């Protein structure tokens, strides 16, 4: 058992609950696919975390991060993907702006997102996030004490990270599902679509321009 497990757990909990691109994507998908879409988006995001964690343990991320050109390509691809997802959400919201608004009945989304699409979007979003590469390269070593096996301790810490992320996504998707009757009202959904779409575009642009 890693000696720094408790500090790592507390750090990961705080890191996980801070809103970011993943949550914006999950909320966006929940508007079109409900609890299931948000949960499968989270599973995709967690799968992306796992891929980065494995790459970090075997040293591939270090080689990738050492290449400025490769890092830039990945960063711009991730930024473009976020902007595209956010922009498509804003476009759909604008295109449907003149449709009748139901004040008492939940809206029935025309473009429901299935599990496979939600999972793929969460996976791709995380795979194209260069910050996660640097996160594992810089975070895990800080919680490996001298004398501990690097591979074993990294594997345990990665498992803890994934469990925390999965629990967070499960709880969050349940909460969103419980509020679905409100969230899917036409007016509310239009506002949320525009907010989440705008946030994703802004996050994508920030990723593209920051060093």
UniProtKB/TrEMBL annotation:
Keywords annotated in UniProt: Cell membrane, Membrane, Transmembrane, Transmembrane helix
Superkingdom, taxonomy of origin: Bacteria
Pfam families for this protein: LysE
Membrane-spanning parts: 6-25, 37-64, 70-91, 123-144, 150-171
Presence of keyword Lipid metabolism: no
Membrane topology: Multi-pass membrane protein
Principal subcellular localization: membrane
InterPro entries the UniProt entry points to: LeuE-type
Subcellular location: Cell membrane
Protein name: LysE family translocator
